[in-house]
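Progress note, sequence design subtask.
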């Protein structure tokens, strides 16, 4: 290999080994020399914060199955899948924990898997999350997809070890960003150099303060030091660690000269701050949500939160909705049922903005009092009290009818005058 080839070789990237369906992610060593895996990355506060924000937010959203009727859409509470997705997907976890786990897998490994348990009729009885690092997606001799999962004795409903081959119809697979649409790439693997640098700077800071934030330097002695090793150990023992910042007393004309660069001169804090923004950029999380409020203010932080829902959370929500609809509903059910998260609560804005919006909707006739009270989680008003009436302002009418009222008034006045004349004539 030539020197130029070695200098300008490409960065590590996922390798396509079997026809676009099985990938080997080059985890491990990064340019900073630090080993980066999903678990070491989660020890970084910025990565942990981003993963927690996205997974908990998606898991807290209401998830319903809706039935399309001739007039509108309504919650399909009687559908067998409703309780599984909304309340309890299996006997061991709630819907929140289930979705939080899948979203965490999706953010760290780029794929989320869950085994679908069915009865003899093909109806879904339960959903159990599977570890992405033990799943293999491949194609058989006919080009058909299949899944192979490494079973552990700690898994649910099993006491055995080994590899189990699963049909795609038995797996709820939610892939992240990928190159073939079948398997997603791990964001941690793709950004391991940025995360590795963050790990390196954090470890440097920890080691720096573990040594008492005392810079190394040179002890100068005017004479000849008979035992330099003993002098070095004596200095380190007396003025490092818990003894840092003590006043040093130098004898025999000795002088201490620090030679290391101060952390602020090396822009240590700026580097750590930049890496925080770098990791937030990987997961497309606004910096203010991971504790960086430098670019946030009272006037723009609400808009940033709305943009988080629209540009960050909504694509993940769409992945979950379409994957669940595709795999959990039958072909006939897809014609009249659909699965949807409700993100309206995150887009509501402040109280004054909501009230102004409701007032506009109410006055223009496309929301009733009960429509508004439902969104605000208030008790409904009965039909007798007008809770479901749709009202409009009386002074609003189509342009073509602008003169109709005046014309009718003129006609009415003319008729009244003729009646008066007839009455006077008859007298």
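Output:
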């Amino acid at each position: 290999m030539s020197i130029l080839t070695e200098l300008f070789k490409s960065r590590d990237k996922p390798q396509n080994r079997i026809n676009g369906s099985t990938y080997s992610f080059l985890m491990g060593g990064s340019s900073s020399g630090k080993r980066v895996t999903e678990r070491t990355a989660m020890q970084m506060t910025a990565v942990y914060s981003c993963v927690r924000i996205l997974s908990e937010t998606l898991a807290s959203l209401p998830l319903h199955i809706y039935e399309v009727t001739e007039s509108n859409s309504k919650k399909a509470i009687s559908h067998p899948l409703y309780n599984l997705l909304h309340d309890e997907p299996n006997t061991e976890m709630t819907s929140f924990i289930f979705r939080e786990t899948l979203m965490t897998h999706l953010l760290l490994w780029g794929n989320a898997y869950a085994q679908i348990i069915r009865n003899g009729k093909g109806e879904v009885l339960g959903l159990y999350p599977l570890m992405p690092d033990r799943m293999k997606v491949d194609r058989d001799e006919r080009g058909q997809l299949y899944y192979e999962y490494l079973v552990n004795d700690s898994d649910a409903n099993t006491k055995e070890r080994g590899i189990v081959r699963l049909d795609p119809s038995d797996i709820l697979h939610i892939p992240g960003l990928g190159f073939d649409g079948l398997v997603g790439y791990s964001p941690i693997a793709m950004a391991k150099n940025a995360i590795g640098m963050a790990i390196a700077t954090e470890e440097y800071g920890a080691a720096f303060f573990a040594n008492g934030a005392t810079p190394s330097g040179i002890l100068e002695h005017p004479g000849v030091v008979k035992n330099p090793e003993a002098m070095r150990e004596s200095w380190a023992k007396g003025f490092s660690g818990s003894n840092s910042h003590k006043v040093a007393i130098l004898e025999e004309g000795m002088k201490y000269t620090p030679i290391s660069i101060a952390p602020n001169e090396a822009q240590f804090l700026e580097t750590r701050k930049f890496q925080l923004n770098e990791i937030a950029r990987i997961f497309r999380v606004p910096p203010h949500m991971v504790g960086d409020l430098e670019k946030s203010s009272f006037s723009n932080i609400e808009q940033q939160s709305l943009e988080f829902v629209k540009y960050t959370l909504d694509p993940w929500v769409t992945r979950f909705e379409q994957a669940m609809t595709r795999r959990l509903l039958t072909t006939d059910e897809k014609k009249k049922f659909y699965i949807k998260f409700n993100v309206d609560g995150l887009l509501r804005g402040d109280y004054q903005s909501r009230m102004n919006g409701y007032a506009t909707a109410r006055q223009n006739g496309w929301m009733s009092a009960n429509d508004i009270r439902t969104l605000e989680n208030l008790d409904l008003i009965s039909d007798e009290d007008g809770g479901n009436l749709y009202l409009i302002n009386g002074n609003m009418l189509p342009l073509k009818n602008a003169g109709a009222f005046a014309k009718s008034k003129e006609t009415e006045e003319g008729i009244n005058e003729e009646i008066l004349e007839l009455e006077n004539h008859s007298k």
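Residues 301-328 form the longest helix (28 residues). Work on this subtask will continue into the next period as scheduled.
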